[in-house]
Amino acid sequence: MPYDIEEVRRKYIGFVTAKARGRYPVEHDPIRRHCHMVEDNNPLFIDPGREGGAFCPPSGWLAHYFASLGPWPAVFEPLFPVVPTPGKRIVNMSQEVEWSARIRVGDHLSVVRRIADVFQKGITIDPEAVWIVAEAIITNQRDEEVCVIRNTLLTHRTPEEVAAANADA
Amino acid sequence: MKREQLYWDEVNEGDELPEITLDINVRRLFLQASGAQDWYPVHFDLAFARKAGHEDVFMNTGFVQAALVRLITDWMGDAGFLKRLAFEMRRQHRPGDTMVCRGKVTGKKDADGTALVFLEVWAENEREGIATPGEATVVLPRTPVAEG
Prior knowledge:
The complex is a heterodimer of chains A (169) and B (148). Chain A is built from 5 helices and 5 strands. Chain A is an alpha+beta fold. Chain A has one domain: Roll (Thiol Ester Dehydrase, Chain A). In chain A, strands 1-3-4-5-2 form a 5-stranded antiparallel sheet. In chain A, a hairpin with a 5-residue loop joins strand 4 and strand 5. The longest helix of chain A is centred in the first third of the chain and has 10 residues. Chain B starts with 15 loop residues before the first strand and ends in a 9-residue tail after the last strand. Chain B has a single domain, classed as Hotdog Thioesterase (Thiol Ester Dehydrase, Chain A, Roll), CATH 3.10.129. With 148 residues, chain B is of the alpha+beta class. Chain B is elongated, with a radius of gyration of 18 Å. A 5-stranded antiparallel sheet of chain B has the order 1-3-4-5-2, with helices on one face. At the A-B interface, helix 2, helix 3, helix 4 and strand 2 of A face helix 1, helix 3 and strand 2 of B.
């Protein structure tokens, strides 16, 4: 059955997931590992004895991690299983994060995801690539919004899958 | 070690943020997997990446974002607040590259008492030039007024 982008748009734009609570509260060690990968030695983030407590760096990625990610066993793909797409390969093309409040170690975050847009726009290796604009609204244990993350995700088929589909057509 | 605080009054359009440099190598790929907890194989499995049509594995959004956040938070000091960060993953940072994050002040304004500074930020490498362009808005404290 051919992929019907208009049907997908009608069905999924505006779709909102149930609120999910992070498995663990915001902890020192994931922050330390996150900072370590980019050699960020800021005591504001990595000093557990800091007067006033340590903060989570204002990274939408890390906020999303504490609110929802960190499942074990790990889930490889599809990364974003809500919207059906012809290809299962994903590239995050852009991100925008708007912050309302800082996140402290000890906070417990939750997330609600919303599909803001879905459209089809071909790329060099896949003329049927599908783009998904997804929002994640992160709140803390007091139900205060701390940030809104907007990702533009490109989903595409592998060159082999495109060749196979062309051969079938 | 306490870091020096930057104040809104001291910032001028055209000011440059101190750059940060990160070598992208195999060790960094492991640090990325550990620090971003992103197990999508396109970021560490060359065969998987090539099957998808990429020339090589490449650094993920979480890594590039963490570097841009470090660039900004190192500059703005503990009392600064990152209000907005937006960036595009236009080109890739790959093993063998040296990623350099830079930024500059593009403007500032007082928005109903909130002292805002606008930044252009980006991550570049020698192979692609500016691979990750972005922009940010931060809130800075004002210079404390001396008492007496």
